[in-house]
Amino acid sequence: MFGAVVVGIGTAGWVRIRDMLAPLPGSPAEKLNVRAFISRRKLDSQQGVSQVTAEEAVSREDIQVAFICTENMLHEENVRTFLQAGKHVCVEYPMTMNYKAALDLWNLAQEKGVILHEEHIELLTEDFKELKREVEGKLLQEGTLHFTGGALKPGFGFPAFSGIARLTWLVELFGELSVTAATMEEDSGSNYCKMTAKLLTSEDRPLMWIEERGPGLPRAKNINFQFDSCTLTEVPHAPGGAVGLFMQDLIHFSAKLAGQVSPGELHMEKIRILHCLRLADNIQQLCKR
Ligand code: NAD
């Protein structure tokens, strides 16, 4: 069994506790036992789990795993604290707010001999799996992914990082990418921002990624992918799977803890995560110019 602590009791942290209290029967997630949570607020017990300080959590021998569920800007510091203490870490995306820090954390995890896992529930949705099936075998000519959504709360950071789920979709669908240009429009008074990044596939096909947020904007992913044979203009709507997205992620993470994921698969995942964070970093640099 692995004892776990959940850091940050927002939406994601609450779900992590819920899922560990009722793991999918027969899955490796049954090996996780939630023992405590950490919050900056002084809270009553959450779903029967009690609060501890970070100092207590890192020193407790019955806690071997930490779930980092805070707002994005605090991920790096929290991940580092628990890796340093020799604990396995599952962090909600994005792992960090710059590429270099993610590389350092990965090296630290390797040095400590522990698992570092970045949650990517966007890859586990039935809609995405269907989209991937539809894209497979087709030759992209050019494409756009335009995300819109409500304004983000403070602490969620630059859009290329807070929106890394969209970038991860593009990389999973079309392979490694490069950035050729990026711009950012912002109106802090009205809490509006629009980031536009021009990307290229390894076959020099242009892909545009737009991340637009503002009060009242509907949460939507608009796509236009032109292939040699057809054009896709809508993300497919597939019926939801029987197992929730965070539970699927929990099963994947606990399979890693149990040594059930091959080194090859772990390596591929790490390469993809670091590639996306490096792209996000490049986009941010170009927007600053
Ligand atoms: P959230 O805003 O619900 O919580 C974020 C942080 O704010 C938590 O640390 C929480 O403790 C703190 N917080 C919340 N309410 C508070 C309050 N009233 N006073 C003081 N602190 C408070 O955000 P979230 O959706 O849980 O996101 C956390 C992380 O999970 C982010 O990195 C996000 O990118 C990631 N994530 C979330 C989802 C999702 O569906 N919610 C999906 C994928 C990834």
Count every beta strand, where a strand is a DSSP E run of 2 or more residues. Answer: 11
Oligomer: single chain
Overall body shape? globular
CATH third-tier fold name of the largest domain: Rossmann fold
The count of helical stretches stands at: 9
Mean pLDDT: 97
Element-level helix/strand string:
EHEHEHEHEHEHHEEEEEHH
Secondary-structure-derived class: alpha/beta
Short structural summary:
The chain is built from nine helices and eleven strands. The protein is of the alpha/beta class.
What does this structure look like?
It is a single chain. The chain has 289 residues and is of the alpha/beta class. It folds into two domains: 2-121 and 243-258, Rossmann fold; 126-239 and 282-288, Dihydrodipicolinate Reductase, domain 2. The chain has nine helices and eleven strands. The strands form two sheets. The chain has a six-stranded mixed β-sheet with strand order 7-8-9-6-10-11. The chain has a five-stranded parallel β-sheet with strand order 2-1-3-4-5, sandwiched between helices. Helix 3 (75-84) packs parallel to helix 4 (99-112), helix 4 (99-112) packs antiparallel against helix 9 (263-288) and helix 7 packs across helix 9 (263-288). 35% of the residues are buried. The mean pLDDT is 97. Nicotinamide-adenine-dinucleotide binds at residues 8-13, 39, 41, 69-72, 92-93, 121, 153.
Descriptive keywords:
single chain, Dihydrodipicolinate Reductase, domain 2, 289 residues, 26% strand, Rossmann fold, 36% helix, 5-stranded parallel sheet, alpha/beta, globular, binds nicotinamide-adenine-dinucleotide, 11 strands, 6-stranded mixed sheet, 9 helices
